[in-house]
User: Which sequence fits this backbone?
């Protein structure tokens, strides 16, 4: 039997959380800015609209980072993943590898679990 390992990566995590919590930002080019004083980076994350402009983005919206919100979303994400496997290898706040071999002996079963995780993320976290 082959192992079935899923890679979970929340799209544009920090930016996604900001848009989820402030829907008026949806549809705008957005970056989450770091703390210049603490030298934590200038751009921590950007949404797909901002990415599409490359290096020069007109009408860019910049919001400060809210790590407490990202940490909460990370905890909720991990709670969702625990429903599908007890073998989770987190990587950063928004990524993880999930061994679902016990529950998904075939590739098709793995795809079904991945789809179920996507639906949970959208419904419960408001993220993709």
Assistant:
């Amino acid at each position: 039997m082959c192992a079935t390992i899923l890679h979970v990566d929340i799209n544009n995590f920090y930016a996604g959380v900001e848009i989820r919590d402030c829907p008026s930002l949806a549809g705008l080019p957005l970056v989450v800015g770091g703390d210049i004083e603490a030298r934590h980076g200038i751009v921590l994350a950007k949404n797909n609209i901002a990415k599409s402009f490359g290096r020069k983005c007109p009408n860019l919206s910049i919001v400060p980072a809210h790590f407490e919100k990202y940490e909460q979303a990370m905890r909720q994400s991990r709670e969702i993943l625990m429903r599908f496997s007890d073998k989770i290898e987190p990587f950063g706040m928004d990524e993880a590898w999930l061994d679902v071999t016990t529950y998904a002996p075939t590739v098709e079963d793995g795809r079904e679990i991945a789809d179920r995780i996507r639906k949970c993320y959208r419904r419960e976290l408001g993220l993709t």
